[in-house]
Amino acid sequence: MSHDFYITDVFTEQPYAGNQLGTLVDAADISAAEMQAIAREFNFAETTFVVGGDLANGFDVRIFTPLMELPFAGHPTLGTAFVIRNSLLKTEAPIITLNLGVGKIPVAFSEDGIGWMTQKSPVFGETISVEAIAEELGLEKMDIDSKFPVQFVSTGLQFLLVPVTSEAALKKAKCRGGFLSDGYFVFCTGGYNEHQSIQARMFGAALGVVEDPATGSANGCLASYLVEHSYLGNQQIDIAVGQGYEIGRPSQLYLRASKIDDVFDIKVGGRVRIVASGDWHGN
């Protein structure tokens, strides 16, 4: 039996950039084992499967990397919501809700074409020493920005947030083995263009992704970290982040976040482009 599929570029201002996503929209009859095989066949950072649901109650979606199923990931959430809205439903509904492993995640679409995910409240974990993270990423101790912690953060999927002192340090970082974390999100101030306030890289070999061009879940963790530690000077942000430039997939993500009376509001946004569609024949 064939299934309709779409390939999208997510978190991009232009075609053939951002993070690639494969989505099968009528996947209720596909087993978990075959979903995993299809994700390996696409070999994108993630592939999604719409297995049920509707506009009123939300759409049931499963997310797979080439190696495993995930309860949540950012660019698959945004890309899948875009496909459901624009290609499956052909609607102008302002909000598409996905039912994921972490619960319901709403995606709101604004008139300027940006889709906004509201992410779960962050959980801040342990901190890691400068010495340990420098060795793990092939950096010098002076490359790590010691004014801020190297810290685990999760809004549904955990990453180790690593502030570095410069673009030079960001560019020379590399993941040596994944001993400290499944996912490392390395960042510094400044952008790859005049619209961006932060530039970042994500290494996730343990997740089946050596380096990810645009990571919505990690950027949700970043937004939480920025307001928790007043990284940009206050506990409210409205910024753009650049990612993926080092691997030829330039991406731009938008972060809006605040912390008021210990209550977080975390939103990650971006644009999506459909670049291909067709029939998935499988076996």
Explain what you see:
This protein is an alpha+beta fold. It has two domains: 3-112 and 271-280, Diaminopimelate Epimerase, Chain A, domain 1 (Roll), CATH 3.10.310; 123-269, Diaminopimelate Epimerase, Chain A, domain 1. The chain has five helices and 18 strands. The chain has helices at residues 32-42, 74-88, 130-136, 167-172, 216-228; strands at residues 3-10, 19-24, 46-54, 58-64, 69-70, 95-100, 103-109, 115-118, 123-128, 150-154, 158-163, 184-189, 198-204, 209-212, 236-243, 251-260, 263-270, 272-280. It has an 18-stranded mixed β-sheet that branches. Helix 2 (74-88) packs across helix 5 (216-228). The relative contact order is 0.18. The model has no long low-confidence stretch (mean pLDDT 94).
